[in-house]
Amino acid sequence: MASSEEDGAVEEKENNNKKRTKSALATAWLTFYNIAMTAGWLVLAMAMMRFYIHKGTHKGLYRSIARTLKFFQTFALVEVGHCAVGIVRTSVIVTGVQVWSRIFMVWFITNSIRQIQNEESVILFLVVWTMTEITRYSYYTFNLLHHLPYFIKWARYNLFIVLYPLGVAGELLTIYGALPFVRRSGMYSMRLPNKYNVSFDYYYCLIGVMLSYIPLFPQLFLHMLRQRRRVLHGEVIVEKDD
Fold it and tell me: Which of these, 12, 59, 81, 202, is most buried using a 10 Å CB contact count?
């Protein structure tokens, strides 16, 4: 009997050690990831400021930062994996929608349609994204290091009230500005007849994407407001599982 109890105690101790090791590795990875992403978006911010100071115009700015933007925004897909494996306790659906919408804007709108790259709306969402991500990744980094300055926490849960609607406005105006070029070129579209017997119109797909902001934006914005009340004011928020 004593031997059985000792074996059980040893097994429990080993399991606890494994859990602590996994937790330490996850924390180390998340810290590295968030530091890298903070640095990446800071590089983008400095590149944008340097371009505007030297050129005195926003025209050509997107092309000057496109490669860096595509790398760091695409790399954010890792965050969906973080949620899926459970090292970050956030909804996979919420994170997936946010990350995919950004990647769609970068790869399938702005990068693909050069005629809109100099539009003011592109600069608007780029500036908003940059401010948002520097604040967000800084918040995560300092939080993981257990040294979170209050002004970063305040910025994380207050600036979005202004930045989120501005970012959405920039994205929608950019998609709207792309519609005439998409319609004329027929890009990413498939017309009948074809060997696959499938029809797809990217023009109407983009209209559908714009309409999807109507239900999605309020949900995501209200989600952030609930998080704000919980973090800044200590309210206990009970949310349904997504």
Answer: 202
